[in-house]
Amino acid sequence: MSAVISVDHVVMNFRKNKEKVDSLKEYVLKSILRKLSFDTFTALNDVSFEVEQGEVMGIVGLNGSGKSTLLKIISGILKPTEGRVSVNGTVSPLIELGAGFDFDLTAEENVYLNGSVLGYSKKEMEEKLPEIIEFSELSEFMNVPIKNFSSGMVARLGFAIATITRPEILIVDEILAVGDFQFQKKCEERINEMMSGGTTVIIVSHSIDQIKRLCDRVIWLENGRIRMEGACEEVCLAYENQGV
Amino acid sequence: MRGRIFIIAVMGIIILILTSVYSIRLSSADNLYCKSMDYENKIIPTSDMELENFDEGEDGLVLKESSSIYLHNIDTYVYTMRFNAKIDSDKALKIYYTEDKEENFSEGKSFEANYNIVNGRPVIIADRYMYSARIDFIDNLGTNLKISSIELNDYSPVIDIEKLLAFSLFPTMVFIIAAAVVIFGVKLNLYINVFRKYVPLISNLVLRDLRVKYRRSILGFLWSILNPLLMALIVNAVFSHIFRFSIDYFIVYYLMGSVLFNFMTECTMGSMLSVIYAGGLIKKVYIPKYIFPMQKCMFAFINMLFSITAIIAMIIITGMPVTWSALLFPVPLLYTAVFSLGLGLILSALTVFFRDIEHLYTVFVSAWIYLTPVIYPESILTDALRNIMRLNPMYYYVTYFRGLVMYGEIPGISFNLACAAYSLLFLILGMAVFKKCQDRFVLYI
Ligand SMILES: Nc1ncnc2c1ncn2[C@@H]1O[C@H](COP(=O)(O)OP(=O)(O)O)[C@@H](O)[C@H]1O
Ligand SMILES: [Mg+2]
After folding, report:
1. Is residue A162 located within the same domain as residue A187?
2. For chain A, how are helix, strand and coil distributed in percent, rounded to 5?
């Protein structure tokens, strides 16, 4: 087995919001008055781990502990301030479903648009269209502008598109919480199916049950640091019992 | 990697300086030869310089239809000819020359030249070896000519910005590109593959832009053609009167300048905000970010193609004669597109951090259009302004575009290299600035 994702001493600093200078005028004035300060907030602090081919990794932690930030770094959306991340394979990030959906366009038009956002050609998407329609159960709605969709329907479409191309790495951030119970089950099935096909998965979820069902290994983040890393059962147990 | 980029930059600057020195020497004529005959107001024909067909007026010489000045025994490389004279005309001269003693003057060895005014004196750039020369005054009938001498290759430096761009900036850019290909060569394939992967996205985004633009107006695509036409009619009504004497087909002249300039403006203004507007996407998925300025430039390019229909319509309506050289019109468009993309990349990257650049640039553009001969003929400018204008990339592109279509002129190598130098300079700068900034975009939008 080889490491598909390796995260090596990653540090992520954000500027504190009140320090934002976003005009040239302000910048020049402040630098003349020497009021430019660079206070930062460390969202991730020295995080290292590896994920191997075909593994399903769960990430748990309280709100604001840095889970989404970590996933964004792995998907290439954010560049870490320090440290290195290497990813071998095509990534399909489900940070937010339907990135690039245009709500004025119909569902079908959005399949092509979202497909191209993820880097797939029109031809590839044409081939997959029936499968997408089937999975998302939206066959009657394909010609309806998605501004008329419920958030669950949008999520279904987004999930269907992102997973249809069988990426080598799937990154899922709390999106399984949207949609009804039936849809969640379907998504889990899809993820399970992909896992058996060798896809590497990283899941963030607030549902410990879901984590327990799906994951092999879990990382517990606390205030931007890894508090615990290990087998699923073990970490989940510790995480659940922390406040008690 | 840092170190190597630094070395390239330093070498680039050294090449730039060395070639500049060479280009300036080239243009400042290098003290090759100087022939000066000093007489007050009049020139008495000598064996070396001979006047033919002049009338002597009270106030100096009066030009006739076939007035010529002969220069014999030059026998040197003539870079410039400076007239210690006052010539009340901006019409060109025609110069015939021979390259050896036995030769006669012929059309094959002749060229037309315009005056550049340097230090208050008209100077002509000849830039060729001559054994002897004949200077014909075209269309200056009745003009008084107060001439005291003609100096060949005079000492005062003529810094020819076009030559500087062509023979100094251009080679520097070529060096930098070559060096970059060597350094990034391994990764080049990777970049190209990533780009390929996102071609469908670009075309989707451009199509969406087009749909939004043309769905909104009832006249649809027609509007893109009508808009410049109407604008041109208005400008024509106001200005053609003023410039009537100096520009034929003023309405075409204006339309060509404004279409090209507007293309550049639309590219750069569109690019400037493109990254900010794409914030939603950039925060959610990984996408190469240069796609967004590129998208806006392509969109502007398509819009410009519609406007070109307006130019064609106007050429047909006015019955302006057009030669085959007009078919080369995509060349200046390409130069302009590359330049605009480069500038667009710079603006889009910086605007993410400094939002007020949007307003500064808008003001800048409205000044810029007046430093480009869009609405007026170049000849109304003072010499100082005309020289400044040669620093303006848009000057070259607009002149190129019009030259091909309106005057049947295909610009020479040095003009082309000057155009390419600016395009490449901005493209390289744009790519460098954008690459340096792009990782931080997501933190600022
Ligand atoms: N773009 C940003 N700018 C400033 N602070 C940010 C930014 N993104 C996230 N943060 C901060 O980083 C911390 C971790 O956020 P996040 O990764 O979203 O946590 P989680 O997903 O675990 O709830 C939070 O305190 C959040 O305020
Ligand atoms: Mg989160």
Report:
1. no
2. 40, 25, 30
